Amino acid sequence: MSASELPAADRRPIRVALLGCGTVGGEVARLLTEQAGELAARAGAPVELAGIAVRRPDKHPELPPELLTADAEKLVTSDDVDVVVELVGGIEPVRGWLLAALKAGKSVVTANKALLAEHSADLFEAADAAGADLYFEAAVAGAIPLLRPLRESLAGDRITRVMGIVNGTTNYILSAMDSTGAGYAETLDEASRLGYAEADPTADVDGYDAASKAAILASLAFHTRVTASDVHREGIADVTASDLAAARGLGRTVKLLAICERVTDDDGVESVSARVHPVMIPRRHQLAGVGGAFNAVYVEADAAGELMFYGQGAGGAPTASAVLGDLVAVARNRVVGGRGPRESAHAALPVRPMGQTPTRYHVSLSVADRAGVLAQVAQAFADHGVSIAAVRQSDVGDRASLVVVTHQAPDAALQSTVDEIGRLDVVHEVVSVMRVEGEDQ
Predict the structure, then answer these.
(1) The whole model's pTM is what?
(2) Residue 441: predicted pLDDT
(3) CATH topology of domain 6-139+315-334
(4) Active site residue ranges
(5) CATH topology of domain 355-434
(6) pLDDT, tens only, 145-188
(7) Catalytic positions (predicted)?
(8) Contact 297, 283 (CB under 8 A)
(9) Domain ranges in the chain with CATH number 3.30.70.260
(10) What is the CATH number assigned to the segment(s) 145-313?
């Protein structure tokens, strides 16, 4: 009887090195043990832990001591390891460990969005050279099956847009601000108290986390290498309760979105736009109803049409689910001697600068309450080639509140318009500027 004809339980085990045993790593280790029989049946062979690399082994009394080591580099290159699962995070020294593992022929499963957003090319090249797999479903949206559909199910289609909520912390904060009317600072404090925000929330609230995820999404969707530095990034710290109130008045809400688009200019030349920033979207849009710390991603493709992926985007068990899905896929490939999908960068489209990307603005102004003000503001828009879609005006004491919503225009033209308006004598203050997605109300 050949090895491939043996029952799964009798085949040579797939041996796994686990790097990191925090919230997600602990769940992965637990599930590998508790669901060993089911995982063996799905993978076609037993899947066993060969070792767990942690910084301080003495801090993990719940784990078998014979599995623990502080020497990650030695573990990932061990002859006793087939697959490396990396859940440490960060760039270095993790990048070196994974490159060493791939060069040694080990397949890699990682949830490391920051590393993939900056160094996926190096990792894919090492995987290709060694004939190894590189899987990373958990890097973008936790438990949501998103990357594999982009990478495999939609590989025969032409994706035109990927837009989504990919950070649970910021979505919780904006959802709470919308429902309670509270300001940003007090809502962030509440999110920290409830455990939705880290002690240092910078990566989340300033958009770094979402930008890394946008780079991964754009790379997969448009078959083009996009790094985090290519992604225009703005956070939510400047979003106010007044912005949410203005959005409600327009039948909209505010979300921090990652938006990746295939853009065609007037000459028919295609490029990729990738950006992360707060956006006003219609309340009837599918993403508007995504509340709390949940994630959702909206995909548009030529043949498939509109698709939406929704679920828990973070947390130990949800993220471990995605990691184990990748691990089973890699183990299957090892059992049958095959390989998973490789990097697809055949399109190699240029990345369009934010200033050239078509967007729409919602501009709130405090202006003098006298005749001719609207004409001066409208002239500033016209001077920069920006068309106005809607104007709303209301009196506020001895001043007037003026809200202008534009049609699409290059972002640089819109920004230049706002700068000029801010210098007009009749404008007391540019109260807020926010981009708009979706149809007019």
Answers:
(1) 0.94
(2) 44
(3) Rossmann fold (3.40.50)
(4) 213
(5) Alpha-Beta Plaits (3.30.70)
(6) 999 999 999 999 999 999 999 999 999 999 999 999 999 999 99
(7) 213 (proton donor)
(8) no
(9) 355-434
(10) 3.30.360.10
